[in-house]
Amino acid sequence: MNKCILILTILMLFLSPAQAEITEDFLVESFLKNADIKKPYIHKEYDYESTDAIPLRIAVKDGIKSEKDLYEGQTVEFIVQKSIYENGRIKIRRGDIISAKVSTVITSGMNGIPASVIFDSFEIKNAPCKIKPGQITDSLEIFGQDRSYFVFPLKWALTILPPTGSLTNFIMGGHVKLNTKKILTLYYHPKWL
Description:
Shape: flat
Low-confidence stretches: none
Distance between the termini: 61 Å
Order of helices and strands: HHEEEEEEEEHHEE
Mean pLDDT: 79
Oligomer: single chain
Strand content: 25-35%
Number of strands: 10
């Protein structure tokens, strides 16, 4: 054990910060040189005084389940359920397709903690008017069934029998299930630029 610590100490003495920087530059150039990296949309100009928000009702185009159908980076399509009008003009039509990316998939946990899926990068295809990415809600998080509401009281009720309270740890939370009839709500902000 002491020999390993001695060898690591000697290596760290010889590895100067300049050598570490050269190694880091080499790794960045060799691995990220040809990578296609898309810069996310950044809100640079807001009308912070405007709190106008129009609800945008959407439903998933095809039913999905978090335990087998979803992965991070996947594109999911939603259908607009109700048209949105602004100043007498139609901005978003019923039936328009909104695509979104799955940014995070969190699996269900012990003690009834539910799974969740975060969608972001919402983009409207074929909208009658130009809608900027910053005018629609940035992200949307969907949760599975939260079973912790009955798991924790059950755990405390069973603590009088020492090993039985711990058995509730193995009750898992629900998966995220979206069918085509479940209506989700985004918000369209007409005055945000």
